[in-house]
Amino acid sequence: MAITGLLLSLLIPFAAAKMAAQGPVVSPEVHADRTVTFRYRDPGAKKVELSLEGVDSIVMTKGANGVWTYTSEPLAPDIYGYNFIADGEARLDIHNPAVKPNLIWVGNMVTVPGNPAEPWEVQHVPHGELHRHFYKSGIIGDERDYFVYTPPGYRPNAGPKLPVLYLLHGYSDMANGWTAVGMAHVILDNLIATGKAKPMIIVMTLGYGVPGFASPIQSGFRDPNRTSRNFDLFRKALLEEVIPAVEHDYRASSTRANRAIAGLSMGGAETLFVGLNNLDKFAYVGAFSSGGLGGDFNADFPGFDGAKTNKALKHFWVSCGVSDGLITFNRNLVTWLKEKNATVDFHETSGRHAWMVWRRNLIEFSQLLFK
Amino acid sequence: MAITGLLLSLLIPFAAAKMAAQGPVVSPEVHADRTVTFRYRDPGAKKVELSLEGVDSIVMTKGANGVWTYTSEPLAPDIYGYNFIADGEARLDIHNPAVKPNLIWVGNMVTVPGNPAEPWEVQHVPHGELHRHFYKSGIIGDERDYFVYTPPGYRPNAGPKLPVLYLLHGYSDMANGWTAVGMAHVILDNLIATGKAKPMIIVMTLGYGVPGFASPIQSGFRDPNRTSRNFDLFRKALLEEVIPAVEHDYRASSTRANRAIAGLSMGGAETLFVGLNNLDKFAYVGAFSSGGLGGDFNADFPGFDGAKTNKALKHFWVSCGVSDGLITFNRNLVTWLKEKNATVDFHETSGRHAWMVWRRNLIEFSQLLFK
Known about the structure:
The structure is a homodimer.
Chain A lengths: L4 H6 L5 H6 L7 E2 L5 E6 L6 E5 L4 E3 L1 E2 L4 E5 L6 E9 L2 E3 L7 E2 L6 E6 L16 E8 L6 E8 L13 E5 L8 H5 L2 H10 L7 E5 L18 H26 L9 E6 L1 H11 L7 E5 L8 H4 L5 H7 L2 E7 L5 H13 L5 E5 L5 H13 L4
Parallel strand pairs in A: 13-14, 13-15, 15-16, 16-17, 17-18
Antiparallel strand pairs in A: 1-2, 2-6, 3-4, 3-7, 5-6, 7-8, 7-10, 9-10, 11-12, 12-14
Helix pairs in contact in A: 4-10
């Protein structure tokens, strides 16, 4: 069953012939010593930078063949987002199939593997499943989706009901943010395999209460009324549409003690808004690098009562990277919470406003749940 | 709950500040008259082309602001893949979150909507679900995944067993090809809603029998032994791992009459290889724009018997676009089949080697199944 070069060329789609004719560019190339070489072919560019997550922009070097390259120092094992910037224009690495889905800022990803493997790397352990649901929201009015992770060994018609973590993405992410970029399903597979996390269901729903809220043209946040509606309708859809559907379709516990809510950035703000204002619904609250609330906490959490909150929550987590522009907002939040006598487990971690921080947040937070 | 411009800027990831400072580029912009404007900012480029699926390369026009634009004629309602080509280099449209996942040729997509909506557009009908399974293949040796579509109203623990279509992607696609690009779940939702297709389960598994077979550096097809192993081990994993798992985990019929297999390009060749050589397993075979078999049909289908095939198959579909480089291969195949007295429903359609052809193939083929 052989194939000729001619036949192969017939399988190649539009635009690909030109790329092939120029010879392959390999990018990124992860070496055994954890250095990474990035390559971008652009003979006409005057300056090409690499914008690497967690690092400042790095100037690349042009080779005789028009390929700009940069080889890093050995990098800590992690998943790094990146873009190229050619003469000031952000570009994608067309040679890398690992694309970060995003409504506004599409980027690429490269994994520098650990030895032993890090919790976000696929390992030979039992795997859970991801289920994608589609529905028309009567509250928000659009066709939307949510993802449900069921842990290894979950059977739809047997076994005990499982606790549920509602896990919210950030501004500009889609419903697949926590899986495609955050690797939540891989992380939980690995933590469950070693007994570090309890088997749980994770629900990851689209985090906008207003269609088109995340737009490159006109950010929804610029309009306070729209921002307010975004939070209010998101909460309504979560509580009245998503949670009931999950508890109907899955062996999902509907008791307060078996529900947790957590999220990053805008999803962290939604977590605080939904969690602290609905203590009858959730026993665990985790806000990662939150941003998007206005800062008038008395207005955001009317009638907030620290003692009541302490009694209701089994764990209340707030975290932010010290190099994140939102660290001041989060410190102010924690100060306000403590003034109200709330007990809060505040983590000032290293890092910026980046997925490498949020994966680690999930790894730690998920191990605290349902124990 | 207001947010300041300052706070918004803190939510913006790396590389995005530069893009924002330059002002937004909107691309693609689909107008009410079905014309589409594509925009690509590259002040230094000498020539920028648009490579639009189903159309030849189109030269774009440079504006004073360094933005290259092209506005099409009114386009037929469809989903069009595209890339930009700047001075001969294929580029992605970083402003468009609709990315075509692919192991080798990543591209963008734009939907020109129909009125009424086309079958591949999300409509207000009951929706099925997509389930993503992860497993280590003992046969192939890697960690891999497959997707399962369950139709609207499917309940894991109630109702009759459903027929199953095994639907295979093409060379360089991933397991998500038929959903992320082919919109198979949307198509079936819409066909089932109008009673045109029977409710069915669709299984979309990773189509490689050899890890790394689809690589930009060294195509697996260049090595006949590797090609052969790719087909053999893919078949083994499908028959011995995927089908048993699906029939264990889902209310999936395991009778021959309720199993169909179809695929595109390399997946079409796999469909023929698996389907025609395993008549005890499938009652429907659909090969769309097949390519990847060597052309020695007597070797690929040893002992092929037209009469026996006619008796076993309820429908045997072969199709190819007349502008597809593989049309000759498919005509030769059909000639050979007819010489062997096989009954084959051969469709020479318009179009090239492109998803716009394969979505239409699925729309027609799925309506023939399980009736």
